[in-house]
């Protein structure tokens, strides 16, 4: 392979981009026994704080198109993980997890946590704390750059969700 690292500024920049691409190809580093689709897990993660959401709120927190979130919510409802309900005085229906959804989230969450613990046990050199520190710094810098270039800002709910660990 050529020593050329174009379009990257340096071999380090190229290699970091390659590692980020490698990470993005993973399917969430999950245990093979998980039952929830990635989208259902993400929606249940947001709702795990106990506060029902409108479709619009879920769309904003997931940073996806409303049609995509609507399709994902409908699929999760069909599988019995979510339900829509009416609130008096509100035009929008709210979405909340069912008991089946809460149980599936707990089960899959434990399997995902187990897998990450295995990865962290094999993480050398380094530590989960150091990785968290660097990833958070990278994501903060990335978002500042996006904001400076007009790509938009995350809302407070999205920031809180990411602080809890989704993403």
TrEMBL record:
What Gene3D superfamilies does the annotation carry?
Winged helix-like DNA-binding domain superfamily/Winged helix DNA-binding domain
The domain of life is: Bacteria
* Pfam family name, one: MarR_2
Ranges of residues in domain HTH marR-type: 29-131
Gene Ontology biological process terms, A to Z: regulation of DNA-templated transcription
Q: Where is this region: Disordered?
A: 145-167
Which InterPro entries has this protein been placed in? HTH_MarR-typ, WH-like_DNA-bd_sf, WH_DNA-bd_sf
Q: Name the residues that span the membrane.
A: none
Name of the protein in its database record: MarR family
Species this protein is from? Gordonia paraffinivorans
